[in-house]
Amino acid sequence: MDKRLFIILVLSFWLTACEESGTNSTQNSSAANSAAKSSLVNGEDIQSVSSIRDDGRPYNMQPLLNTWPTLPENNPVAEDLLQTNYYVVLDGSGSMAGGDCGGGKLKIYAAMEALEVFAGQIPASANLGLLVFDKNGLSERVTLSSNNKDQFVQAVKSVTVEGGTPLLSAIRTGYQALSQQAKAQLGYGEYHLVIVTDGEANIGEEPESIVGKIGRESPVMIHTIGFCINEAHSLNQPGIIDYKAANDPQSLQRSLEQVLAESEDFTLDTFGE
After folding, report:
1. Nearest CA among 143, 131, 145, 141 for reference residue 80
2. Are residue 105 and residue 16 in the same domain, yes or no?
3. Residue 26: what pLDDT?
4. For residue 22, with 0-12 CB atoms within 10 Å meaning exposed, 13-18 middle and 19 or more buried, which class applies?
5. Number of structural domains in the chain
6. What is the pLDDT of residues 237-259, one digit of tens each?
């Protein structure tokens, strides 16, 4: 073989190998998010299913979809990736000072008592957080974490009713808190947004857009307890929101207990069914 032809063939082979190496490097980089989520979870190897395509249905109706949350580089990882998370949004608007449906007490006091029982029933290993809108505005009163039940109850009892009902802002903030925790858990575990409200949203604070976003892109379960309002509430969206109407303190308490009961039915074994 001519020496020049031999050198040309060798160079061509070398350039082709370099191009393939660069392509593989790019593919490996884009798969970093999926690789992190296919690591060991509490000692059990969980297979990555990131290749599953979104078919347009709500996220929770696609059990193999694994695209939430988007993980940043150098993402801190929680010790328990399978923790259950409950983030409560409590309506402290002026209408909660009414006595209808309160069983002889103000609606806010009935809600306080029900949430105190709810907190006591949550597993010790679960994370609990609280956001309130009331006289003091809309703000997170308890950061999503574990071993904070006493702090949660105290914050609930400190609510001072007054003001409107900014449901859009409240739900968006709650979703952000759950999404941040989901990054630490690599998307594993359970995520529950629990809303207790007695009225419709302010103009400009309609929640439909954020509810649709949550349903499309995440496995976050939205539970709404409509206290002393009818079934026509904007948060009563079958297939997207678990909505329960409560017309007295007893049904309010039962509705919160059902949130926990439904959570207990969810296990890693049933995830792929």
Report:
1. 145
2. no
3. 41
4. exposed
5. 2
6. 887 889 999 999 999 999 999 99
